[in-house]
Amino acid sequence: MNKEEKKSKKIRISIIASLILSITFIVVILKFTIDPSELENIFLERIRYEFIIVAVLLNICTWFLWGARLKVLSNAVDKNVKISWCESTKIVIANLFLAGITPSMAGGEPVRIHLLNKDGMSLGGATASVLGERLIDAIFILVCVPLALFIFKDRVGIGFISLGLSIGIVVFIVGVLLFLYAIKKPDKTKAFLIFLEGKLSRIFKKRDKSESTKIVQRINREVDNFHNSMVFFAKEGKKAFLLGGIITVLMWSTGFMIPSMILLGLGLPPFFIESYAAQVLLLVIIMMPTTPGSAGVTELGAGGLYMVLIGSSLIGVFVLLFRFITYHMNLIAGAIFQYRIFKSVASFSLDMIKKKK
Q: Lowest CB count within 10 Å: 49, 148, 215, 332, which one?
């Protein structure tokens, strides 16, 4: 089996693992929270599908808002290349597939970088745009988490949810601190990452000298890209960064409305404020690098957070609808767009970026 076949196999395993985990946990939650005989009655008579349709449309709106943010940041970074809103939205939808089968959505970044590069942006410029998005998301979450914890402070009584939140918050804060350190001390960051790579390569696998040299070069390149990107947005790209921040608030807020629409569709109160807070806390949990696409983790997290709001009788149906709209729907749309671009849903790799360099 050659290198490309191994990569394709790895992606296929991630696809299968994420789907199996997601479906399994949904089935388990349904089994323990509702009588199977009641399901048919709920889907045929109780659900108000107009609200479910609104939830679907809100999810689609988040794709266009994400596309608008990517367009603003990209056009600010490289003024010689103009990325249209339509093109940036296509890039975002194509990225949804790999983002959905990798921990912390990390697989989506290389797709966005590659497609921006393909549209004429320099590799450094494309990387700066995507890293700018990550920074804005981190700031948004950092601002929202204290408010969400305040709103939910007397509601989260389930042990594993509280534990997951505690771990997630610690990991997130450590990540932000490392993020800031990497901006301030790029040379020390390079030295540490090269040291860490050397230690790990000795523990897990023997590498030849040429491969180690390539990894060191990639580390140096990526840290430089990261540092230059942040410096650009701190100086020349302030207006674009601010506009990107406004779009980010709209994007996440639109997505955070989806559970409230599902609750209305189930004939329950929408819990707008509490649901917004729950989505922020859920975001902290699923951003930890755990399972592919955080499958299983998200189902349990959503179930635990919303159970304290709506009780247990309809929580399984809620999780089923929530994950279908915000995860499975994204996977399907992402797979279609990625197949149209790459002629395969398992062909993309970082090597495609390196070849363009």
A: 49
